[in-house]
Structure formats: structure tokens, C-alpha cells
Design a protein that fits this description.
Length: 258
């Protein structure tokens, strides 16, 4: 009971006061600011890297080119083959924007990934969903919608069960799972970092700390350092998973099953 009174409310990890228009539909808060800054960083990275091109890349150009080629090789070509090259700009934009809004979780004095607010993963999932559906109609025409949920080789009576399952899995579950996966992983990491930071504070800095508590203070601090490094890996991994799944869905929409 005493410990619960000392620790901050868990809601303080996710609720932020509006900077502009609080409690309105156009509220601009800390999450909005992080998304805006991440967008500017993403644009600046490729603008500078693309407009100041040199024969031997260096600095920002080197980072932009290396990042773009990594997305092309490991996402576009891996999921779609040679046809994926023309999709690389889209995949690179998606990957780096997700990475930049994830990475706020390890930035000092911020330490909050924008993707731990469900609206942003949901927006990204809707972008992915609309993209692979539109791609299906562009590549396959009007037959896309039904052919995508009517797998070949299935006996007629079984289609009564298979078609509804395919419809829900491909058109409803996919965007939901994309959003939940990104949201849940980044939220879990944020909570873990917050817990270790609070434990370190209560054991080492709080006025209620005693000699016995100070002895154990380095343990949660070491845990905080370890999970901060792990959170950096998760930020990259979640951006990669979200983007490559989108590439797989687009590739599937572009080619009818035989």
C-alpha cells in the first residue's frame, strides 16, 4: 500500500496534456509533435541524401543510400522479386517513418514511442490495407476481390466454409494484426523501461531510500540499460516486420493464385 502511494499513476505513462486545442478533435499533443518531427527527419534524410549526391557517398548521403538499398534488398526484392524495385520508395518511406516514431522510446527526456498510442499503428495498418487492396484491383482487375478469397483446388462444398474464413483473415484480420502487433510490442517496451526507471529512482534517488535500498539500486539501473539497448533493436525489428508483411500482402494481391 505504501509503495503504491509512492509510485506514479500508470496513466501518466500514456496520457499527455494537449499543447494546442486540448480535449478537442484537433488537439496537438506530445504524440502529434513526435509524429510531426519524425516526418520532418524522414523527409530531410532523403532530401539531403538525394540532392547532394556525390560519386563517393559520405555523411547523410551515405546513410540515405545504405538505408534505401537495405530496404530494397531485404524487403522489396525479398518479398516481391524484381518487381519490388518500383515499390522500394513506398517501402523505404514506411520503414523509416515507423522506425523514427519508434525510436523516441530511447530518446532521453522523451522516452515514449508514438506507436504506443493505438491511433498511429491503426493509421499505418489502414495505409497498408488500402495499398494492397488497390494494388489487387490494379494488377488483377475486378476479379481480384473474389479470386483472393476463393483458393483454387478447394472442393465446392468446402468453399462455404473456406471463403468466409479467407475473407475475414485477408480483409479484416490482416490490418488489425498489423496494428496490434506494432502497438503491443512498443507499448510493452515502454512500460518495461518505465518500470526499471521508477525502480532505480525509488531505490537510489528518492528521499525514502535507505542504505539497504541503495545496495540494490544498481540492479534495476543495469536492467534499464539492457532494456534500452533491446528497445532499440525492437524499434528496428518492428519497422521491418510491419513493412515486409505489407510487401508480402501487396505481392499476393498482385499475383492471382493458380
Amino acid at each position: 500500500m505504501v509503495l503504491a502511494e509512492l509510485l506514479p499513476n500508470i496513466n501518466e505513462l500514456f496520457e499527455w496534456k494537449g499543447l494546442v486545442g486540448p480535449h478537442t478533435w484537433y488537439e496537438f499533443n506530445k504524440v502529434s509533435l513526435m509524429a510531426f518531427v519524425s516526418t520532418i527527419i524522414c523527409i530531410a534524410l532523403f532530401w539531403i541524401g538525394g540532392t547532394r549526391r556525390r560519386l563517393v557517398p559520405s555523411g547523410v548521403q551515405n546513410v540515405a543510400e545504405a538505408g534505401y538499398l537495405a530496404v530494397e534488398d531485404n524487403i522489396a526484392l525479398a518479398a516481391m522479386g524484381e518487381e519490388g524495385r518500383k515499390w522500394t520508395p513506398f517501402f523505404a518511406t514506411m520503414f523509416f517513418w515507423i522506425f523514427f516514431i519508434n525510436i523516441w522510446s530511447v530518446v532521453p527526456f522523451v522516452q515514449f514511442p508514438a506507436t504506443s498510442r493505438f491511433a498511429i499503428p491503426l493509421f499505418l495498418a489502414l495505409v497498408s490495407w488500402l495499398t494492397f487492396i488497390i494494388a489487387g484491383f490494379v494488377y488483377q482487375g475486378p476479379k481480384y476481390f473474389f479470386s483472393n478469397i476463393n483458393p483454387p483446388g478447394v472442393p465446392g462444398p468446402m468453399k462455404i466454409i473456406v471463403i468466409p474464413i479467407e475473407f475475414f483473415s485477408k480483409y479484416l484480420v490482416r490490418p488489425f494484426s498489423l496494428a496490434v502487433r506494432l502497438f503491443a510490442n512498443m507499448t510493452a517496451g515502454h512500460v518495461l523501461l518505465a518500470i526499471f526507471a521508477i525502480m532505480t529512482n525509488e531505490l537510489a534517488i528518492s528521499r525514502n531510500s535507505g542504505t539497504f535500498q541503495l545496495i540494490f539500486a544498481p540492479l534495476p539501473f543495469l536492467g534499464l540499460i539492457a532494456f534500452t539497448a533491446f528497445e532499440l533493436l525492437v524499434a528496428v525489428l518492428q519497422a521491418f516486420i510491419f513493412t515486409i508483411l505489407t510487401a508480402v500482402y501487396i505481392n499476393e494481391s498482385a499475383h492471382a493464385e493458380h
